[in-house]
Amino acid sequence: MKHQVLTLASSLLLLAGCAMGPQAIPAGSGASLALTPEVVSGGYRTQAPASVEPYSQADITHITAMLYTVSAGIEAPVEQHGVPVTRVIPNADLGKPVVFDRLRPDTTYRVKCQAYMVEPALTRLISTDDADSTTDIVVTNDDRPTVGKLKVKLKARPFSGEGSFDLDVKDGKLLGGGSETLTDKGAAN
Length: 189
Hints:
The protein is mostly beta strands. The protein is built from one helix and 13 strands. The protein folds into two domains: 29-157, Immunoglobulins (Immunoglobulin-like, Sandwich), CATH 2.60.40.10; 160-189, no CATH class. It has one helix spanning 2-18, and strands at residues 31-40, 62-71, 74-77, 79-80, 83-84, 86-90, 98-103, 107-119, 122-125, 134-139, 146-153, 161-170, 173-184. Strands 2, 3, 6, 8, 9 and 10 form a six-stranded antiparallel beta sheet that branches. The protein is elongated and about 85 Å long.
């Protein structure tokens, strides 16, 4: 009986140690940053035709997150081994934190995101290239990762359409016709 209780207690301690995840960072290896993507859909909805919908998280094939430092308003790309630090996040992982580690504490970092949609023979940028897809965060001198949201704002979906209406002229007066149509011609971009 004593042996079973000891085995159970050891198993629970082992499980608790495994659940630590990204908090268990070896001392002296630098600070870390854990950001969870937060996607904001693009705009432009129409009432007719209903087939024109804004870009959404479902349209994203992957997001590229690029890391920069910011000092006195000037940003500089962070490099490890001479290569800029980037993370490519597939759509299936958008709900999971993106971790950047081995960072300098007490430093302001900027993460710029670009969301892409891959179609046959075409990779299309579908996120904005401004502050709406940029996250600034200060990494402190702490043994736990700094946590935040990774902002990604999707562009408005381009729309191409055609409209027509009828006009009637009666007794020299211009009258509105009885029908209007709006058809989606498919967006070129």
